[in-house]
[pyruvate dehydrogenase (acetyl-transferring)] kinase
Amino acid sequence: MKNIINIIKKNIIKPSTPLKIIKSYHQPINNQYLINQSNFLKKELEIRLSHRIRDLINLPYGLPLTDEISTLTESYIVSLEKVNKNKIINNSIDVNNFTDVLLSIRNRHTNAEFQVSNSIQKIKYFDLINNKTLNKHLDKYFLERIGVRTLIGQQISSVKENKNIVQKCYIKNIILDSVADINISSDRIYHDTPNINVNIDPKIHILYIPSHIYYIVNEITKNSVISHFSNNMEEKPINIDVSEGQDDIIIKISDSGLGFPRKKINKIMSYYYSSNPIEITPELELTNTPILGGLGVGLPLAKVYSQYLGGNIFINPIENHGTEVLIYLDKTENAIENLI
């Protein structure tokens, strides 16, 4: 234990190295590339995992004392120990062994969002919670978590599948995949499916991480669907429009779910807000069934995903009519990780 404490102390004072993900992870893959990437990743993960442990320990409002955050912190310590045990990577065998370690780390932290959500549910009714303070801490944690998973994902994808995680993404295909999953959830919960119109030139594409686009679009659209069914507006369409600008791909999701007062935007974008909270059980964690809502972290986390590579999300509620959400995805290849 003393050794891991020293490792953490040594690394938390070092800054992370923000990467040009799109440019860096859209390159030809060869053996020397994998060796260099592995050695860089070993050092960088020691820093970033140490930061994760620090961030979890420093969470406010007693969150570090909850079982969920305590367990999550311990799992990061285990992961840091595993990375630290690896020596310098010199050949393809070393690369494969190191990648197996990273695969186990990715699997170990798969349910971190659920763990954070459940811990927040335990403190959300405390009167002293400051939404801005909590959001600041969790934004930082999730931004760097996304960064860690992106780096690990690139290593696993390039070694195990000989491909990069950054791909030529056709936006329409990703949106249609999201709509299909939402229809499954809606049919199960409401015994009906929403009327979703997708208006986009099928040729619009972007070099990006497909899973990030899917997550962002899926979370925003799910909220529109819930609003429609909750307000008996399921016959009215939810419109998803996409346009391409000089620097951004812009996705507009608009609904007729009656909207909400503008003063509630900060509440809706907070991590402890959920219109229909559910408890995340081990059984639910293991299922592949799409969840329509209730985690409480979906909207703020979608915004963090967009900001990770220089984009953003803006919400425009039109009270007694509906809500418009604008998603900006930076399409410039020089976009740098946002880890602040």
Notes: The longest strand covers residues 322-330. The chain is about 55% helix and 10% strand.
